[in-house]
């Protein structure tokens, strides 16, 4: 049923898709042809930046580089290789075909690499530092957005001189269309990396800036409204509470209000900036918007993150899927003859993993893959560089010796020739998918005299448990309230001009230089 829904959604807006495909399938252009020149980012002296720039330049000299008109960066937040494999099997099994040999849309891209995700200071990084690597071309400290490692965590005074230009800001200043789409809050780490400059990723609204002066540091939502991002052409995601004052009721949930303590309604301020602009907060607003015009769009569909794909149909006011937002954005951005740069994030893959809830992580991975398929359909490989990757992985593992065709969300059923059986040494069954750490190590068994939860952290028998239920948490080894990221390399898939530079084992921040060089926005080191 899940894939049937995806297939149905894929047929929506067919006319817009065809129009966009025509608009983006003409011969590639360079920035010079439209009067634009490559821009030297202010972080060009950073050692991480220079190292990646030199590496990519050497690769270009060896392999050549065709110019791209458009760039789309797809980031599956937390979409490690085990997540891709499990989602592939899940997709095939859901469609009633062989899961192990199935192919996701992202896996059809002809070039691929392993991307190293460590940050300046962590072996296992967070989304802020990893997204900054891809958006700005440098590795920075975990928790930082758009500033170099020279800044100090949570210290406003340390920021001046450490700010980094992003590919999206450079594209906007160069006259290209720009778009940022996410199922997370638009002020969250990954989408925030396209415009924010903060030494603390949690400073999404002024009320989040505990211990920091809003007079000297701007919160992330305010930076979106007051900086270059205010002129991005398409911004779609969640997180409207960060833009609304505490006195303002949420337009969808009457019992909720905004988060801002400064009394500012940033959605209204954005709309008043001039030119054709439209804001939207629900499905009706999205459906009413004309994405074939040159109107700028700000859609914030939830107070916090958008719904998990598994829960989206139950949303009160309705919200578009990631695929639908991607189709709409490509339609709108394709109106610019000079091309566009866009980020699309499947943000809730990560959140489901943190909760130890594999089924929601896999459903959101498939929703993300449907967005990739839509982009491949609507653009041409002749002029559009598409990169699909993750910011980091998670501790999800595919384990045991399950037989071919065993339900990926089910208990391990080992074959007769397997090195191990279907039961653990404790005599109890276990699932194919599990986590190295997380909340699945314990289960709530009741409450104490004060009403506080009581947990049992011993492994329990899954014999009569529905491991495919929506709220089932896969068992984990180390008990943690929130499962952690993983530190292994992640996959990067690519097609279009510049995709030939995505191969082997690469540094994550090289992706910025590959995209920037392909679309002609970033100069070669020799030209700096």
UniProtKB/TrEMBL annotation:
The Swiss-Prot or TrEMBL record lists the needed cofactor(s) as: Zn(2+); Mg(2+)
A molecular function annotated in GO for this UniProt entry is: metal ion binding
Q: Mind telling me which InterPro entries this protein's record contains?
A: Alkaline_phosphatase, Alkaline_phosphatase_AS, Alkaline_phosphatase_core_sf
User: Pfam families from the xrefs?
Assistant: Alk_phosphatase
Q: Which residues form the active site?
A: 127 (phosphoserine intermediate)
Signal peptide residues on this chain, from the entry's feature table = 1-15
UniProt key word Transferase: no
In which residues is Mg(2+) bound? 77, 188, 190, 345
| Binding positions (Zn(2+)) | 77, 350, 354, 391-392, 485
Entry's cofactor comment: Binds 2 Zn(2+) ions.
Task: Classify the source by domain of life.
Answer: Bacteria
Alphabetically sorted, this entry's keywords are: Hydrolase, Magnesium, Metal-binding, Phosphoprotein, Signal, Zinc
Which family is this protein grouped under? Belongs to the alkaline phosphatase family.
> Could you identify this protein by its name?
Alkaline phosphatase
Q: Which organism is it from?
A: Hyphomonas polymorpha PS728
Phylogenetic placement of the source organism: Bacteria, Pseudomonadati, Pseudomonadota, Alphaproteobacteria, Hyphomonadales
